[in-house]
Structure formats: C-alpha cells, structure tokens
Amino acid sequence: MAPDSRSSLDPELRARLLQEAKTPWRGLRRGLWLAFTASAAVGLATMAMRSAGGDVVPASDLLIQVGALSLFGLLLWKDRNVSTAASSDLDN
Q1: What angle do CA 48, 75, 58 make, to 5 degrees?
Q2: Stretch 24-37: mean pLDDT, rounded?
Q3: Are 41 and 66 in contact (CB under 8 A)?
Q4: Nearest CA among 16, 28, 17, 26 for reference residue 80
Q5: Which residue in 4, 10, 39, 65 has the most C-beta neighbors within 10 A?
Q6: What's the confidence (pLDDT) of residue 52?
Q7: Is pLDDT larger for residue 54 or for residue 23?
Q8: Are 59 and 23 contacting, i.e. CB atoms less than 8 angstroms apart?
Q9: Residues in CB range of 15: below 8 A, 6 or more apart
Q10: Whole-number Å distance between alpha carbons of 26 and 76
Q11: How far, in Å, are 2, 43, 45, 46, 67 from residue 56 at the CA level?
C-alpha cells in the first residue's frame, strides 16, 4: 500500500512538502523579520524627524535603532529563498 500512496502524490506537492520540512515556520519567521525591520525603520525615521526638529536624540537610542534595523534587515535578507537558484544550478 505504501508504494501506491507514494506514486499518487503530485510531484509539485511533494517538492513543496519537502521544502517545508527543510525550513519549517519559514513564512511566520519572514513575517516577523519584516515586521521587526519595519518597526526599526519607523523608529529610526521618528528619531531623525525629532532630531531635524531640534530635539536632542541620545546617541545610545540612535545606536539601538540602527543596530535593530541592521540586524533584522540582515536576518530578513539571509532568510530569502535562494533554493530556487541553487536547485537550478544543480539541475544543469
């Protein structure tokens, strides 16, 4: 019975399921990285506008926002889908 069920599975569905097994929770993770990156960007923009308006922005707060934007931007970039380019290179 196992060989029949394996052959009846659509190859595209099987590939998607295997990819999900390799990278579980990828969609949720990317959503969080995007939300955190956007939050850091809004915070940095707010600090820039406050500074442009003449308010004093502590350097420590500015460094935290720049660090958060850099960290979450890097995590979002590292979590991108590079498997399609890599698999097409392996197929050739």
Answers
A1: 25
A2: 92
A3: no
A4: 26
A5: 65
A6: 95
A7: 54
A8: no
A9: none
A10: 11
A11: 69, 15, 14, 12, 19
pLDDT the model gives residue 1: 45
Tokens of 64: 């935290």
Q: What is the dihedral of CA 82, 87, 89, 92, to 10 degrees?
A: -170
Extract the tokens encoding 49. Answer: 């506008």
Write down the residue that tokens 């029949």 correspond to: 4
Rg (CA), the chain: 21
Does pLDDT of 91 surpass 80? no
User: Measured between alpha carbons, how far is residue 14 from residues 9, 11, 19, 21, 80 in Å?
Assistant: 7, 5, 9, 10, 21
